[in-house]
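Forwarding these from the shared drive since the link keeps breaking.
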Amino acid sequence: MRNRRVTRVGFVATAMVALLAVGASPAFAQESVGGIDQAVNDALGPFSEWIAGVVFWAPPIENFPPLIVLWLVGAGIFFTFYLKWINIRGFKHSIDVTRGAYDDPDDPGETTHFQALMTALSATVGIGNIAGVAVAISLGGPGATLWMVIAAIFGMTLKFTECSLALKYRNEFEDGHVSGGPMYYLDMGLQEKGWPKWAAKFCAGFFAFATIGGAVGAANMFQVGQAQIQFLQIVGEEGFWADNAWVFGLIFAIIIGIVIIGGIRSIARVTEKLVPFMAGFYILAGVIIIILNIDQFLPALGAIIGGAFTGEAAAGGVVGAFVVGIQRAAFSNEAGLGSAAIAHSSAKTDLWIREGFVAQLGPVIDTIIVCVVTASVIVITGVYESAGENVEGVSLTSEAFGTKIGWFPQVLSVAVILFAFSTMISWSYYAVKAANYLFGESTMVVRLTQLLFLLFVVAGAALSLENVVPLMDALIFLMPLMNVLGLYVLGSEVKKGLAEYWDALQSGEMMTYAQEQEAQAGTSGI
């Protein structure tokens, strides 16, 4: 234990010295807006534009969505029917498992079911649920909200499938830690299905590389950049903090470093408290706005439902509402990306299909609940009607809440910072596990990945890299290319495992942990 503490202290010290060296550099502080920023943009600009165009390519048809979005939505619809609507018929069991009824502390793994879910939600409940919804409504009209909900319902089954497989093919080590996720079921699972070893490892490596790129960019630099903007809304857009953005990034990096250095167990302890608090506070504020505008609730509900089929979307009527809605749902809950599967693979359980039930609650919380609350407030207050196509999502949401709660915009800024923080700590874990797959299970790989992640936190706050964010965003959406392919290949394993599990549950053969303890006590007493 003492050696572990020494290692942690040493890492923190090393990270802080490195970050201070970067941050204190006059060249970094003074030239970030000019020389460094421009050099990076010049170097990466053409490649960033090219890869973003490839990943988000759409046929030259008006309002036709990018094919990657259809790839995700199509998979969600397929698995929902393939698994006979387990997202609906297994919903009550999902709640029972998540609340801990089946938790056995002696099962292999590192986190409880609830902690695994909160860690996954930590990465998805964030800026997308606040800003993304506002953009969806301003472009797709209120009807986009209904399509987001519909896409999330199908996304539940996609989460069920990928997170179940993450448990089935995870690696469990003697010291108790585990490593799992799409890179492992792509590697081992595809080989089991007869794929050549090189092909399986290529798919897994491709996914792992995209995960690291997405974690460093869109889930790191973009998040801290947004958090820094919101911080300036609180302290003022002129002065020390505006001129020295790197200081904000440095402080953010140190705080994140303290959390992530303890690995998934430390991250889970933070997220299981932070995520319910953030989401609960935000939902409560939204409910208050709805109650204060209760006379407008039914008209707003009518606009959301009617707009989905007769919408007056700026992005192209009904088709525009549909396209924008499914796009924002994909960004919101990450179903099919494979990221949540990495978090859920840490859960303590000896029944791999069980974690799928926990995972499918993710889209319910981050899209069906949080996004719908955001949408309801925006529609019910009517602020979206004056928004243009280039609306800043957070500003629109802030304006909506501010119509009845004058001080809420400042509180929302704090919430955005916390949402960004939670997203980053979860994605740091995803990056580490991807690096473990690519470069091996070693402390050095973990620490170097964490240090790289923290360095980019500082850079993300200080640099305005217009071409880097689209590049990293594209890398994130490279993840489902291989992940969804793997789900189709291995889907029969999930179907078989689910049938066996469901039969045991329905027959009463499967007992809760409390029932097992009572049965054992009764047996020992005889």
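-- next protein --
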Amino acid sequence: MFPRTGYAIFGALAAVLVGCGSGSERGAEVDYSHLEQASPVAEPLSNQHDLDSFANYLKNGLRLQVAGGQSRPSADVAMMAEAASDTTSRASGNFSDTNVHVQGVDEADLVKYDGEYLYVLGTPRAGYNHQTQPQTDVASTSTFAPSYGSLAQSIRILRTNPEQAQATAVAEIPAPEDDDNQWRSQLYLHETEQGKTQSLIAISEIYEPVVWLEQSDEDVTLARPMLYQPARTTARLDVFDVATPEDPRVSWTLDIDGHLINSRKVGSILYLVTRHRPQVEGMIHNPSDSAARQSNEQRIAQAPISELLPSFQIDAGEPSALVRENDCFLPKSLKPNQGYAEIVTISAFDMDTRALVSSVCLNTQVSGLYASPTSLYLGATVGDWEQRETGVHKFQLDEGQIAYRGTGKVRGSLNWAAPSFSMDEQDGYLRIVTTDRSRGWNDPHHELNVLRSQEGSDVLEVVVTLPNAEEPAAIGKPGEDIYAVRFLGDRGYIVTFERIDPLYVLDLSDHHSPSIAGELEVPGFATYLHPVGDGYLASVGQDADENGMPTEVKIELFDVRDISNPQSVGRHLVGGRGSWSQALNDLQSFNFLQVGDDQFRFTVPVSNWSFDIWRENRLYLYEINGVRGEAELQMVGSLLAEGGDHWRGSARARLHDDTLFYIHDGKVWSSFWESPELVNGPF
């Protein structure tokens, strides 16, 4: 419980803020200058708080939203959502599915494949169409919704025929009727216990502009959409029964207040991480006089806390509380003048029973997530550029039950665009790679930290840091940044780069004594690393000139069987200067299939450029043969899909036995693996 003295202090402060609380111009001036937006925290959280402290903390955040320049908000950390290789044999044959960060943790994708049917999410034609007109009727706000263009997409279902390298469209799930403000972004498949696809899960977001009351120069109150304010968003799940793929039907719909940060699926449990920004109706943005400020304060003070928390609806029914006050974790050390009005929620839904299993929330900033089959970590970077730390909050996952297990902090920051590469859990230990720039932006210091939760403690203890006194060797040469990280069991791989690419191999077999076991320098750099068998590593990156400027796309194979002596055993350069691949920063664009004990196949999409001239999109096909001995990297060929814009759509591929399906911009092409120049489609 928080100390009661804090509430007494807040009570005195509230008297200054609200005055008489009547909304009259004769009341005391509402002054929010003492309020401070809470920074992200790297300290333990607690849900053992008094209701008053939680309400004050949340409402202070609302006050800061309408302070009109009176507040002193702290620096915010931008929220980034990361993107999301599973080989399976549910249907006949050997085929690939979504490439994922952690085996056993499914991730959403734009394309799903079950060996019989392809489920393809169309490409949005995003744009912004502002069609609003200023109005003086504050009661009529429906005409103010701006259009974001045609964001929503249809979902195409195609039956595949791998033996003939063909596909046939059998059904199309149309875009939602309100396609101007709804954006589908993620797909999952849900199977029966026998492994047959039962449901298709489509996750989307519905954007509604925030409409504020605003005072004009003529002292007339207008209702205007605040185009530069975050929209009110709803995360929506549409579950389609696809037991008969030719006749998909909606079987369940879920709406959750808030923006979707990301999702993961473990077995039948779908975990959704959302961020909710509470809204109070009738607020006047940037109030210019005392009466307006007092009106805002009165509305905030009188708002029931239950109406500020996120809710959910099933099949458009009555809203139910997603979380309650005691489900929310706040920083332990709260100051009475601090506030934060965004609620991050972790919710677990059982897709077999179509029910909420459990939900918890954090009233603090987070910037990304990492999930293992048994844990979910949310984190953020705290502090200024001179002294940055990364805090991670651990939640245990147990068949949908979510329990807070503690918070840890390490020096430096990590790549929040792809945090699931910078973090990894094994045997209850969290390994995390960060970069400290306290000595200057051009003098980064990279560290590996290993953390573990302690029984009876809410602190994730750092058990070891690398480099250290026993292992002083630095990770990276002076001035080099981290370009890729991959944890694979007892090993870790880190790529740093400034002019050449050092690949570092870390020995993590002893959680308390990690070390740099080997190092290899090669031209260029890699941004994605993928395991091949027990002793090889495939990479996607770019070559570089003598000044460190990227040139062609580079595909390379490393022999890491000898942990102390990694070797490059083959590389291919694709395209001219300026060529690029989505697989450089989107692991789902990299598709991979093991064919027998000794051969692996993978595909990499490349947009071919020559200096400033775009040439074409191609999907390049590679084989790694001899994995049980001396492996070799071979380029089989490439598939050219005509008619696609170089910038539009996401490239995906699926491999099924000797057949290849290439999906780009919602269209599907196919070929046999050995003859990719003979293309069928688009379907």
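Helices lie at 5-18, 51-65, 290-302, 305-308, 419-422. Residues 1-26, 69-86, 127-149, 225-229 have pLDDT under 50 and may be disordered.

- D.
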